[in-house]
């Protein structure tokens, strides 16, 4: 029994069957990658996991509980964090404040009327946030405005904001999209480090094969809304169906 | 039956004004993406164009008529307008009488100019700023415009008459086969409604059948792509602002005989017109027009004594109640499109 | 101090000193001098400064922190005023129960309106709040006349059934509002030479309450709750995916700012026990928006500055007339003097709103941070000049910047 169990999920947009009959099982403390050509339904699937979309059919269980019908903040409180394709951070706030917000969310839940205490008196939270920032090598940038960071730093910050919540499942939506090679490698290193240091399950949607094969323990290939195969990276590399549907197409040029 | 028809007719003139202002608001919002709180002021300026033309036509010189005396025994001073002197009594007086329709001719260039000036001078710099900033700066502009008008014309409403031929009412019911005196309807309101219908039809035809209109509609749907096609969309949008200003201005000119213009009439109409735009659906032209007439007619129904006796005070709040219900049940309004003004 | 850091504590202290000594500070000109009309140190005006300060500080908690632009906040002010006057009519002329009731009622009213309006954001939210406020205004004028007394406004009468207290005083007049016997309108006059300073009970009550609310606002700004509100303004999407429910945060901010508005309304009624529907009109809502923006939205001191600025110039500017202008410019040759007066004329007296409108537009265009940002820019200019001076004396210490 995996930590995330997706069974028979289907989603239709008007005449388009975005997801057919998706079954997926993500095991605890593994990195599971979902790959597939454009329009394969990767993002739709992810949105079904985090509560942005509600699938028409099927079930999504996280740690034995259904996530369907819950709103994004409830699903996050269950222990699922999400990294977006373009980093979603609080650009008007400082880097430190960006990381403190998830700390409060973890401690206080989805709403707490904490109007009279001072942020500067929250020693535990400050320490936790600073520790996290030093883990991702951003401590010296703690008092900069998040909006002024480089794209790579924004990505690291978003990652830090997710990790500081100590989620049980981290969903990453194309974490290296639009990055230069060096940045991509940095991100891979960061993710590898996270994988070894923490007990965390990751589910990555990715285009870049290099990233997928250097990180993933299991890979699911999605095409036209249905999973083609699910296997280890070694087996996926040589799989004829995958070459046909995805890799072959990518290797033309 | 005749009572219902009467209420519908009564609602049409106010509905026409709402629809015209809302049409302009939506044009500006849809093309330029700007929320214009000064649009009501344009309506007000239009109404004051009518006032000004009437005053100009009434400019008089003074002559002394020695044959008559006033009650103090002095020779009587007679005011005679220049137009009467120049064009003779019949034609001159007719011109004065028809000052509101004549004002339309003056108002069009003035309003287009005001619209251009507003867009080039102010609004242009706010395309990239947040909507809140746009609301705030146009709100400030509305205050400035209305205070300027107040300075020159005073705070009191200025009665501005319709031409003699269109004053009074006629028995509309008889035309439709009802009993005499069942539906008495003022001429000018009918004219106002027809005028509004013509303008609305004109704007839609313009957008539908000209290349220019096609580009603008494309721009409303997707501004960036149209810009990529190498079309100078900005210039066309400036023109759209002028057009929207002219529509609001003409609505104001023709409204002058219905309600004597005062300096805050623009704000009064603006609040309601915004509600109309939101009910119709932000960015939807047919929605704005439909909602304008719908709310005008609803307001008129709510002011019937039969309705008021059931729900007291409903006439005062009907528009807001409808707006709140619509916004909560159909967040995009009656005909709103997805993705307009949403996060 | 008071759980504030040094910077905030000194800000609070400065504001406290300014408000406590306002009767002196705002009265710099001798009573019989020509400039006496610029004195603002009389109770009626000073009360308005602090009351509108409370209103704007509260509005800023909503708009400055969460970015939700409400165009209907005057409704809460009006509701607060009505509640206070009813308390005077029914219970007691003591202002404490009246103020408490006005805060509670406006808070409940804000809860209701906020619950509905906050389902939408952006311009839709502005229109919804505007619609609610206009609706309240129209209702107060028409159907709710038994409660609001319609166009006349709600006033005290000689036959009010005051439970704790008398309907009529011994000399046959309506009793006055008081705080445990201290009458709001009573004042202590201090004459020093040509100066006349007035210390009124009403003003000091308002000032103390303003300081309390200002202190509370500082605490909210610096709290985790305030941080969450700033996060709402910045990125609601990220908030939701960080496990935070944005709706209760915005609703709480809306209700708090509604209660501030109600408090302001209650104080207004306590100073002068009447309430009219025009306090709820959307122009009144627009005014608090002007104050907050003009002073500096999202800053602590901005709204207070904005409220003081607008109320001061509204009172003083509108008193200047052509005669005053002719006096000022009498040193000029006649023709030029007349011309200058002619040019300035539209902007003064009744033309004050024109000046305000222009000023407001200029602030939005060039100084989005309001007076506070203007002050900061001036300071940095000043500091830069100073730094440059230092640099010229010791050029080696400052490498080219």
Automatic annotation (TrEMBL), chain A:
<dbReference type="InterPro" id="IPR003593">
    <property type="entry name" value="AAA+_ATPase"/>
</dbReference>
<dbReference type="Pfam" id="PF12399">
    <property type="entry name" value="BCA_ABC_TP_C"/>
</dbReference>
<dbReference type="Pfam" id="PF00005">
    <property type="entry name" value="ABC_tran"/>
</dbReference>
<dbReference type="GO" id="GO:0005524">
    <property type="term" value="F:ATP binding"/>
</dbReference>
<protein>
    <submittedName>
        <fullName>Branched-chain amino acid transport system ATP-binding protein</fullName>
    </submittedName>
</protein>
<dbReference type="InterPro" id="IPR032823">
    <property type="entry name" value="BCA_ABC_TP_C"/>
</dbReference>
<keyword id="KW-0067">ATP-binding</keyword>
<dbReference type="InterPro" id="IPR003439">
    <property type="entry name" value="ABC_transporter-like_ATP-bd"/>
</dbReference>
<keyword id="KW-0813">Transport</keyword>
<dbReference type="GO" id="GO:0005886">
    <property type="term" value="C:plasma membrane"/>
</dbReference>
<dbReference type="InterPro" id="IPR027417">
    <property type="entry name" value="P-loop_NTPase"/>
</dbReference>
<feature type="domain" description="ABC transporter">
    <location>
        <begin position="4"/>
        <end position="249"/>
    </location>
</feature>
<keyword id="KW-0547">Nucleotide-binding</keyword>
<dbReference type="GO" id="GO:0016887">
    <property type="term" value="F:ATP hydrolysis activity"/>
</dbReference>
<dbReference type="InterPro" id="IPR051120">
    <property type="entry name" value="ABC_AA/LPS_Transport"/>
</dbReference>
Automatic annotation (TrEMBL), chain B:
<comment type="similarity">
    <text>Belongs to the binding-protein-dependent transport system permease family. LivHM subfamily.</text>
</comment>
<dbReference type="Pfam" id="PF02653">
    <property type="entry name" value="BPD_transp_2"/>
</dbReference>
<keyword id="KW-0813">Transport</keyword>
<feature type="transmembrane region" description="Helical">
    <location>
        <begin position="310"/>
        <end position="328"/>
    </location>
</feature>
<keyword id="KW-1133">Transmembrane helix</keyword>
<feature type="transmembrane region" description="Helical">
    <location>
        <begin position="270"/>
        <end position="298"/>
    </location>
</feature>
<feature type="transmembrane region" description="Helical">
    <location>
        <begin position="190"/>
        <end position="216"/>
    </location>
</feature>
<feature type="transmembrane region" description="Helical">
    <location>
        <begin position="95"/>
        <end position="114"/>
    </location>
</feature>
<feature type="transmembrane region" description="Helical">
    <location>
        <begin position="237"/>
        <end position="258"/>
    </location>
</feature>
<feature type="transmembrane region" description="Helical">
    <location>
        <begin position="42"/>
        <end position="61"/>
    </location>
</feature>
<feature type="transmembrane region" description="Helical">
    <location>
        <begin position="15"/>
        <end position="35"/>
    </location>
</feature>
<dbReference type="GO" id="GO:0005886">
    <property type="term" value="C:plasma membrane"/>
</dbReference>
<keyword id="KW-0029">Amino-acid transport</keyword>
<protein>
    <submittedName>
        <fullName>Branched-subunit amino acid ABC-type transport system permease component</fullName>
    </submittedName>
</protein>
<keyword id="KW-0472">Membrane</keyword>
Automatic annotation (TrEMBL), chain C:
<feature type="transmembrane region" description="Helical">
    <location>
        <begin position="354"/>
        <end position="374"/>
    </location>
</feature>
<dbReference type="InterPro" id="IPR043428">
    <property type="entry name" value="LivM-like"/>
</dbReference>
<dbReference type="Pfam" id="PF02653">
    <property type="entry name" value="BPD_transp_2"/>
</dbReference>
<feature type="transmembrane region" description="Helical">
    <location>
        <begin position="94"/>
        <end position="116"/>
    </location>
</feature>
<feature type="transmembrane region" description="Helical">
    <location>
        <begin position="9"/>
        <end position="26"/>
    </location>
</feature>
<feature type="transmembrane region" description="Helical">
    <location>
        <begin position="46"/>
        <end position="63"/>
    </location>
</feature>
<dbReference type="GO" id="GO:0015658">
    <property type="term" value="F:branched-chain amino acid transmembrane transporter activity"/>
</dbReference>
<keyword id="KW-1133">Transmembrane helix</keyword>
<keyword id="KW-1003">Cell membrane</keyword>
<protein>
    <submittedName>
        <fullName>ABC-type branched-subunit amino acid transport system permease subunit</fullName>
    </submittedName>
</protein>
<keyword id="KW-0812">Transmembrane</keyword>
<feature type="transmembrane region" description="Helical">
    <location>
        <begin position="288"/>
        <end position="310"/>
    </location>
</feature>
<feature type="transmembrane region" description="Helical">
    <location>
        <begin position="201"/>
        <end position="221"/>
    </location>
</feature>
<keyword id="KW-0472">Membrane</keyword>
<feature type="transmembrane region" description="Helical">
    <location>
        <begin position="248"/>
        <end position="268"/>
    </location>
</feature>
